[in-house]
Amino acid sequence: MAKRVRSSQPEMIHCPYCGEDYSSTYKHCPFCDEVEQPVVEEDLDESGEGSRSRGGKRLATNTRGGGYGRGPSPLSIITRVISLGLIIAAVIIVITIIMPLVSKGNVGGPGENSAPAQTESVSPDPNETGTVDETTPPATEEPGTETIPAEQTATGFSLSQTEFSFSNTYPYPVTLQVTFTPAGTTGTITWTSSNPDIASVDDSGVVYHGTQTGTATITASMPGAADVTVTVYNSATSSEGLAPSGTGSGSGSGTTSASLSLNHTDFTFSGMDNPSVQMQVSGTSSTPTWSVSDTSVATISADGVVRPAGPGTATITCTVDGQALTCIVRCNF
Fold this sequence. Notes:
The protein has helices at about 75-105, 125-130, and strands at about 10-15, 20-25, 155-160, 165, 175, 180, 190-195, 200, 205-210, 215-220, 230-235, 255, 260, 265-270, 275-280, 280, 290, 300, 305-310, 310-320, 325-330. The chain is α+β, with helices and mostly antiparallel strands. The strands form 7 sheets. Strands 4-11-10-7-12 form a 5-stranded mixed β-sheet, with no helix packed on it. A 4-stranded mixed β-sheet has the order 14-21-20-17, with no helix packed on it. The longest helix is centred in the first third of the chain and has 32 residues, at about 75-105.
């Protein structure tokens, strides 16, 4: 086949309307064929009508090269901005909501610095194996706990006085009366003295002054209840009012187990014509025995009626159920 010479190749024509180059074999610019062209003055014939039905400058944007495109429309700009905003919102939702949920579901997974689960250690039951660890010390009672006697029904108590004084004017013994709570209950009271040489106490709660002056503390204790203390000031030097020998009060301790009390613990006659005072003891059905330390001051009958006899101070003593209860009587005339 004969090689085509260069001069026989079709000539390229540059379209003055769209700026494209096309072969001279085309009658009109193929790139302008489908677009209606504006009629320009040089294309009009003598009659004023267009001599060319096709061709002319392209009104559409040239997308195949050689021309210049138009800028984006406002609608396309708004659409792109809205799309970009939706994409950013989706990313924020994923980061702030979805990622934490996914992280919670992977706690303790591979690569997590999670603490290992602690397993509770269970000591073997000696009853299951039939053997007991001989090195385990036996259970012991906690220190400070006291065994409550079976006959004790009281859960607390109080004393008739919190402090008092002995003097040469008033050296007589004082009975500390116990009131158990709840009412009507009984308990066991242990009495102790911090210094029996200053003030001693017997097993019924009767306090006597000692041979030494000073201050002592009488303590009343009951299992299961708080201790109650009484402060005693002793300035008496006379032998009157000392604890009787053989009462055991020198040890400074004793017990009482009945809630006995007198209806009077201290009263005063102002004259010989004062009416008599009836003494009574509660907390027992036994018949008490009454006595007075000085009959020149007051007298008492077998049934507990006290009458004044002369000026001074005396002690009424009630003995019942192995206990001694006392009452001070004064005659100021």
